[in-house]
Amino acid sequence: MTRNSPIAAMLWENWRLTRVEAAQRLAVGIVAASAALSLANPNLGPTVAFWTLITVHSMIWLSIAKLNGGRFMDGYKPGFAFYLLYTRPVRTITFVAVAMAYDAISCTLLYVASAAIVNHAFGQSLPVFSVTLALVSYHLAYACCQWATRNRAVQWLGAIAFSIPMIILLRNGLTASLQVELSAVENIVFILIGVASFVLTVAGVARQRRGDAVATASQPRAVSGAYPNWLINAFRLPCPSASATRAQLWFELRSSGLPVLTIGLVVALVIFLAVAIGAPVAVARNVAIPIAMFAVIVAVFGLGNNAFGIRRKQGRIYASAFESTLPCRTAQLAGLKVLVRTACLLFALIVIGACLWASSSFLNSWGEWLADGNKDALPDLLKLRQKFSREFGNLTGYAQAALAVIAAILVAAVVAWQAAREALRARFPRLLLAWQWLPPLWVLAFILLSVAAKHSTVLSPATVHTFFLASFWTSSAAILLAAIYLLWNGIRERVLTIRDVCAAMLVPAALGIAWFTGMPAPSVTGMLWLVLLTLMIGFLAPWSLSRVRHT
């Protein structure tokens, strides 16, 4: 292979597009699997860690898929992403083979690296190389559905049609010792799926390259840039004209608040139906439990994302002209957006939690649920339900109210942070990327030090504990200095007024009071860190929105 080889050029292009996402997936996989092994039940921890790694590394490269435009919630627009290759003197089969092989092999290698690191750190025996064939075949089939057609219905139906059988095959091959043992017939099936996916992708991309494929018309985007118009237009509410604040509240409710509430209600209904169907249909239990486990996390970080309505298009991140020219102060606008999104998200979470609790009563009628194919995991779930009921029932009414206040403030902080992150990504993309790497790197450093302390006589657990305390107080000081800087800069640039500052300080004050007066055994150091972090986010949200609107 020469230096000017087209294959080398395409591999380099793929690497340049995915290198940041690859590092993020590696860090997220290791941290999530480590959390599952550390926090989950010892019997379920390895299984949860394994499926977490599979979930993280089974997705196609999003940095390549989004080149066609569209939104993540829609799976981005289907069709081959490297349309610039159509004009290059390279055979179709060549650049399709390079793209598919890079996607399948690179993602599989990331899984192998993550599983190997987790196994070494925790002394587990997660599958490493035995799952590679299934992952490669899965990625080839996924790429076929994404790239071989420009029809969105074929994309979604095809992904569902191949995903469920392949997951069932992988689950059936998972043994009690958490190893994947596939029969010769199953290996042949995976190989045939990979070959058929490659052939279909080449044929589909060839039609797109010749112009024979049907081009799909782009749908009009929603004003908020986050939810489709049909969902926003489902709520026909008259706009109040008595005041600008009421009109702004109407706009936020219709553009993002009520769609969030609707999606939350649909998720709650899906959870209830999935668990209810799991009683007579045993296969549905393998789908119902993962949906119930990740529903709250997905709702908080998915539905609470991008409250400022930052848009993305072909690698460009920007705020709409409508949002930037609203006749409203930046701090007031940021507060309205965050409060509306938080209120609708909290109501959606309450409904999801109520459906989770109501549907958990169906677990007694399941009989058994073989999570790993051998051991019944249903008794552990029933014990967890009883423990939660006992612990929550033993709290006093004041403690329950304090817990509700703390949960509401933390959800608001997550919404405000995600909104500020999207605004900062539009204004300072490289600086934000560097700051986002700090928490995963800290977790990785802590894990590596813990592993070194177990296998070395030089490092001791006391040294690891000292490192943890030093990094904790260093981050607390950094958060405090950042809050002071944002406060000073916001007042200097007239983004914040005295009333805004007092309102921002009331939130962490309420969090601290609710914690120390309502919780039975408060952690002073951890609560101090949360209070400082909430205070910094309260100043960061209007400052970041001001950077997008006025610079």
Summarize it.
The protein is 71% helix and 1% strand. The chain contains 19 helices and 2 strands. By secondary structure, it is mostly helical.
Describe the structure.
The protein is mostly helical and 551 residues long. The protein has 3 domains: 6-210, no CATH class; 222-394, no CATH class; 416-551, no CATH class. Helix content is 71%, strand content 1%. The chain is built from 19 helices and 2 strands. Strands 1-2 form a two-stranded antiparallel sheet. β1 and β2 form a beta hairpin. The longest helix has 34 residues, at 6-39. The chain is globular and about 70 Å long. Residues 217-225 have low confidence and may be disordered.
Map the helices and strands.
Layout: H1 6-39, H2 45-57, H3 62-65, H4 92-122, H5 132-147, H6 152-172, H7 184-210, H8 229-232, H9 244-277, H10 285-303, E1 311-313, E2 316-318, H11 321-324, H12 330-359, H13 378-394, H14 397-427, H15 429-436, H16 438-455, H17 461-492, H18 498-518, H19 524-550
Antiparallel strand pairs: 1-2
Helix pairs in contact: 1-2, 1-4, 1-16, 2-4, 4-5, 4-7, 5-6, 5-7, 9-10, 9-12, 10-12, 12-14, 12-19, 14-15, 14-18, 14-19, 16-17, 17-19, 18-19
